[in-house]
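name: query_chain
kind: protein
chains: 1
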Amino acid sequence: MTRRTYVLDGLCCPNCAAEIDEKIKKLPEVKQALIDFPSARLTIEFGGDEASLFETIAGIARNVDEDIILRAS
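structure:
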């Protein structure tokens, strides 16, 4: 398992954070995920290809709010 922290630039709504968190947790390669809304940070533990998962999560975030940009912390 790999653990990473990412920043969700543009995350401005707790409801959006909850929706993104819920969708990420449903991904099969994700073991644990937590979005800290005040810091706009996503901490995730996963197995598999990090680049592919990063793109999937970035897409989830953009689908919830097109202004959110995922980046490494």
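note: Helices lie at 14-25, 50-64.
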